[in-house]
């Protein structure tokens, strides 16, 4: 049931959701305002959550959602890469890995 | 803040989410198995839920999610239209209206 | 199907979800860090979202979720009331009204 | 950051969400109507989803949500245990393990 791109995808989406939620909390404690990072962490975590849920169902919408998730991850990675905080750098990596897994899944299922 | 297509969209998405959730419950009580209807009701309700949430945030992903929602609504309407039950016919109408509002929003924001 | 406490509840939850999401975005633009407000806005909006979804299903868990939502609204109102920004004051009002509607629903269904 | 009960909890919740979503799909394909199983699979999967999301944030509401999740898991296990299908038996096991992990977490954090 689980092909290789889906297995990788699920693993990367999980790591990405967690990194985004943790970066969200950590950004709220920084001295300087991290508005765009906070916003994109939340969006990306929400997209990961719905992708994980739909990955467990036989949904025809799944590839469409994965494509939106790729965009959310890309935007969150772009933002996190601007900041030196460890949590931002880790989140950027998780987002970039998730973006690649999403794109690989979409490419393999078109 | 609310332009006309967004206002219509939100109204239609709300009605669609509710109709899908009610059709879901009602389908579970039918004598004959309504598998595809139950599945598409759930998916469409879930997509409406995330669209409503993102409609209240300043999200760059919103048009992408609205486009996926349009597809979910279209598939759910196609399925519900096959069945004579009142709840299916009402759900089909709510889904079709939501699909149109989604498509109008996407067209107006490209 | 809709009794009076449920009807009021749904209306207040909708208004509260929207106020929380808007206060979230607005807080991100303030000069000073509004960390606790941002965090509680997100939590409260998420709880409202799941309550709205479950309000449309025949769920035995619904009163339990409404009780958690009451707590989320109370905590978000406590936080928003500390800040003079219009969006915080409006959010506090929406949260307090939602908290009351949640408590009224729980009291009427025990 | 992750204590032992939380680590176990997250693992069990993930397995439970997946089992519920898979049982949901499988039930839709059974000859006989599996209405209550389908309904409780959906509810339990939804509760697991929000618990996973909140487990990654510093949320004061987390124990309350875990308590509701325990109830969702218990009800879903009760229902699935009635059916001989492999997917129902597996889902019942995942739900029961998740219920226990939820209760252990709540007991350890009161």
From TrEMBL, chains A, B, C, D:
CDD domains: DUF326 (cd08026). InterPro entries: Csp_YhjQ, YHJQ-like. It holds the Pfam family Csp. It comes from Jeotgalibaca porci. This is Four-helix bundle copper-binding protein.
């Amino acid at each position: 049931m689980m092909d290789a791109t889906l297995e990788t995808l699920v693993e990367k989406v999980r790591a990405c959701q967690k990194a985004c939620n943790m970066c969200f909390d950590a950004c709220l404690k920084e001295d300087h305002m991290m508005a765009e990072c906070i916003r994109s962490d939340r969006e990306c975590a929400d997209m990961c959550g719905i992708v994980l849920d739909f990955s467990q169902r036989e949904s025809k919408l799944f590839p469409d959602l994965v494509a939106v998730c790729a965009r959310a991850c890309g935007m969150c990675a772009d933002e996190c890469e601007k900041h030196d905080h460890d949590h931002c750098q880790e989140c950027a990596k998780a987002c970039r890995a998730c973006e690649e897994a999403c794109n690989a899944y979409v490419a393999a299922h078109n």
